[in-house]
Amino acid sequence: MDNVVVLIVGAGPAGLATAACLSQFSIPYVIVERESCSASLWRNRAYDRLKLHLAKEFCELPHMSYPVDAPTYIPKTMLVMYLDDYVEHFNIQPKYLTSVESSTYDNEKKCWSIVTHDMAKSTIVKFTAKFLVVASGENSAENIPMIPGLQSFSGDVLHSSSYKSGKSYSRMNVLVVGSGNSGMEIAYDLATHGCNTSIVIRSPIHVMTKELIRLGMTLAHRLPLNLVDNLLLMAAKLIFGDLSRHGITTSTMGPMILKSKTGRYAVIDVGTVGLIKKGIIKVHGSISKIMGDMVEFQCSKKISFDMIVFATGYKSTANIWLKNGESMLNGNGLPIKEYPNHWKGENGLYCAGLARRGLAGIAADAKNIANDIKSVIGAMSG
User: Fold this and answer.
1) How far apart are CA 89 and CA 20, in angstroms?
2) Secondary structure letter of residue 245 according to DSSP
3) Which H or E run contains 188?
4) Per the omega criterion (within 30 degrees of 0), is the bond before 71 cis?
5) How far apart, in whole angstroms, are the C-alpha atoms of residue 141 and residue 104?
6) CA 272, CA 136: separation in Å to the nearest integer?
């Protein structure tokens, strides 16, 4: 049984940022990670052309900036290098290939008792911790919707986490399901590699340029969000025109307010909209069912596809292993309390990076958690 002060679950950006903030206060911690590396989502499950959609000033982790010559929008490879440098700089030593089987709060001993599985050695390792930080991410498990007949589909089915580039699929008929940033960017990548590309856009979205979002985030510090939204929507209308005739409807809630209330991002256009307008990428509504290689849409249209890519996001898996977490997480493994008070539960339980606020939200969570643990330890020893 290993006794630790803080146990951090997950060595993605949220876990690493929390570890760095704790080390600033010399608070000892152990960090466990089920994958064989840190930041596995960015390293192994992100497509090749991915860049951060927000400007670098909104994407730094605490106590370490990007290199001075870094571009405004950080590419995936540079982000991974930055995270590797971060691990080295703060001497973070995650225990890799260690998955958490269960964690329960012991009311008598006033501590968390955590059972982990060391996959390399096939052994069970138990920890007790005064504080437990859930940093396993909102993107822990792939989310593929239940569509009638999906199991009968004769082509390839891929989740966006396995998608790298369109070059291996040229000339194929490919359907992308999901119109968030990943779906729109994957559709663009497929089309530019010569695929016959279609995309399902079911719900209203906001389409913006990355410069507009940067402007919006800068103005949001000084102006009311509804005013910022009005400016962004007017500018987007000038740039993109009326997209409703191309099958893209706009959400009634403005992009900044939508982000603050639901965590849903506006879509940053990388060229997809231009290809939709030219008819190179075709837009469809909801799927009603799949039969063999035929996909039937709700408008009764039937089209044959060779491959379906699901860019339908991820879900948190914290609920599977975290018992006694009801003070902090709901049934979907996401925080019960609204941002910015979401990061703290009862009995020394915390979460980092679960508020759908990207890297800026992760940085704020990590600082809050470290400060809170420091003050609790101070009060105990005081």
Assistant:
1) 9
2) G
3) helix 181-192
4) no
5) 22
6) 32
